């Protein structure tokens, strides 16, 4: 469903992605791990068209995301991106945050968008927050709403960049629980994370990045118990 082939990206003379090849199957959950600065966010941003690649191709199904003639709106409607923080519009209620995208981008009617929003909020235990404003919610609740808002767009691909790293440790679990629930519903997810236990328990595949390259990738069991590359081993020793 997502095919990344030979992607390169530099900022000035700093090579940040140095030939990335990664294919993701429908329903697969891929966790990107690696030291800060290894290129995880840049890779996600290239997939979401927030950065232009210098070289290589990215395909989402039948759509070539790296095609210069790409209709970006068409692509964006198929991909959702949630990052660390500041995902919600502060001046809109939870419900308004949730219906905006479906109505504007997907042309869904208000009643239907609201019905779906309420259903999703119920699923993440926030049905009573429809009329609340984001700043009255905890960080964990805000991120649960942000995840629900992404899903309300019915994306083919969900990109998550360190969605728990700005949270109080006590709030991390409730957000990861939502990600797990999304995986259960068959969502295809590529996520950068420092939550190694989550990656180990919930990912289908771990991809370890260092210096803009995929050093090693495989099922969690293999990566966490028998990493082949010394750099993977060293990283895991520091982060487990
Ligand atoms: P990670 O998410 O793994 O921590 P990033 O993709 O954010 O890594 O960053 C990889 C490298 O690219 C870092 O050295 C960072 O400073 C650099 N970088 C990222 N975005 C930019 C930018 N817009 N301009 C210049 N350098 C950038
Ligand atoms: Mg990052």
Automatic annotation (TrEMBL):
The entry's keywords: Amino-acid transport, ATP-binding, Cell membrane, Membrane, Nucleotide-binding, Transport
Ranges for domain ABC transporter come to 2-236
A GO MF label:
ATP binding
The places in or outside the cell where this protein is found are: Cell membrane
Record PROSITE patterns: ABC_TRANSPORTER_1 (PS00211), ABC_TRANSPORTER_2 (PS50893)
Per the record, the domain of life is: Bacteria
The record's Pfam families line, in alphabetical order, gives:
ABC_tran
**Main subcellular localisation:** membrane
Q: Does the keyword Cytoplasm apply?
A: no
**Cellular component annotations (GO), alphabetically ordered:** plasma membrane
Membrane topology according to the record: Peripheral membrane protein
Family, per entry:
Belongs to the ABC transporter superfamily.
Q: What is the name of the protein in this document?
A: ABC transporter
């Amino acid at each position: 469903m997502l095919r990344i082939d030979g992607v390169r990206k530099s900022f000035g003379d700093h090579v940040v992605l140095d030939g990335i090849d990664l294919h993701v199957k429908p329903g697969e959950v891929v966790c990107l791990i690696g030291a800060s600065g290894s290129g995880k966010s840049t890779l996600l941003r290239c997939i979401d068209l927030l950065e232009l690649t210098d070289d290589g191709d990215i395909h989402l199904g039948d759509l070539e995301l790296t095609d210069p003639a790409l209709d970006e709106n068409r692509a964006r409607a198929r991909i959702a991106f949630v990052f660390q923080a500041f995902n919600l519009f502060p001046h809109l209620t939870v419900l308004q945050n949730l219906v905006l995208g479906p109505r504007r981008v997907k042309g869904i009617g208000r009643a239907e968008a609201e019905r779906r929003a309420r259903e999703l909020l119920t699923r993440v235990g926030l049905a009573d927050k429809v009329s609340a404003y984001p700043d009255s919610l905890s960080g964990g609740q805000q991120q649960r709403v942000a995840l629900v808002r992404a899903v309300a767009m019915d994306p083919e691909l969900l990109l998550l960049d360190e969605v728990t790293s700005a949270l109080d440790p006590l709030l991390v679990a409730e957000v990861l629980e939502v990600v797990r629930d999304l995986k259960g519903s068959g969502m295809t997810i590529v996520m950068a994370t420092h939550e190694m236990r989550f990656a180990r328990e919930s990912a289908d595949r771990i991809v370890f990045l260092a210096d803009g390259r995929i050093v090693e990738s495989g099922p969690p069991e293999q990566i966490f118990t028998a990493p082949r590359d010394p750099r993977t081993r060293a990283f895991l020793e520091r982060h487990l």
